[in-house]
Amino acid sequence: MNGANDGGSPPSSRDVEPDEEHGDSGPEQPRRPPIYVLEGNTLHTRLTRELGVNYPFVSDGMAFVSLPPLVLAVSEAGGVGMLGVVPEPPDVLDVRIQTVQAGTQKPFGANLLIAPDGGQHRVTREHVEVCIARRVPIVSFQGDLPPAEWVSSLKRAGIRVWVQAPSVEIARQALALGADGLIAQGRQASGINHSGLPTLALVRALRAMTDTVPVLASGGIADGLSAARALFHGADGVWVSTRMVASVEAYAHPGYKQRIVDGDAGDSDFTTVFGADWPGQRMRVVRNRVVREWTGREGRVPMPTPGPTRVGTTRLFPGTPGGASVDIPRFSAFIPTPDTEGDLDEMAMPASGASMARIESIQPAGQIVVELMERARRVLADPHGLEADTDEDDRG
């Protein structure tokens, strides 16, 4: 069992507030009590031993949402925070990385989404060069596989490369590229998702295929029980998305956060309706009005759309000199942030129903990390009942 606590502790985190370092990523937030990580608060796996962190908890680098305050809060609480890169250009990524590095000496990473937009990739070699120049500890790739040359360049620079794998075949290709870690993306996972297997089934399949690199479970991980179950079934860590949207530090619109808190297992769905930005990319999102209206008949979405061509406005690259207010076109994949105004029922809000069923409130990210992992540690100490896939809800 990869999730068993093997004792011992990495150095404890310095006592800071999760939002102490805002950098240039958004407006100031009220000060909150610090999240304390004690020497005894550990849950050791291969992942924690490799990185020297307290917990095998990785916060997904979500586009628009995962800015420095969230990254800092997670890393300072003993997990690994990941920056969301798309749609930000290389110079903005450089600013974000410097902000994180000014706020923590703990491991963190940058998550690069490889998906064509109008025949072009928003993530470029320049993004990779920024990560190399700034010596980012971890770079992860989601969507398509990265070019082999990018992987080799990152590894030569001493950077760990993780690759999202929605299938065993993609995992094999990622390992052939030299991936240092695999993110097992199950059907329950939010956002762009091409998986055909439930999370635990995919974790077991990847674990059976390789025992040489860490495997992270992604999809439906939102509380201590779901995390413990993933670790019991062979994961070396958990990759947490939807739960982190419903955190204080996440740069998500308050209405988006509240829909996640209010949602249940049946309140997310797969759709390709947001193809204006990601043509043909299947996404798991909150089942709002536009998703209910068009899912299953996306091929009949009129292009160009009749009537109003926009559903709101938002600001790109918040907190940076290059930030600009832009329109949100109908069927766009722009995710609502605190800067967004408009009709959320017409916008893409990535979320996992399996996770929403386990989320009861919006909490500080550091508190989520510690409470979720400490609960997982207690469950793993008496793992009766973890063998079954009872939490694998195919509704997502």
TrEMBL record:
This is 2-nitropropane dioxygenase. It comes from Pseudomyxococcus hansupus. CDD domains: NPD_like (cd04730). Gene3D superfamilies: Aldolase class I. The keyword ATP-binding does not apply. Coiled coil: none annotated. GO terms for molecular function: dioxygenase activity; nitronate monooxygenase activity. Residues 1-34 are annotated as: Disordered. The keyword Kinase does not apply. Keywords: Dioxygenase, Flavoprotein, FMN, Oxidoreductase. InterPro entries: Aldolase_TIM, NMO.
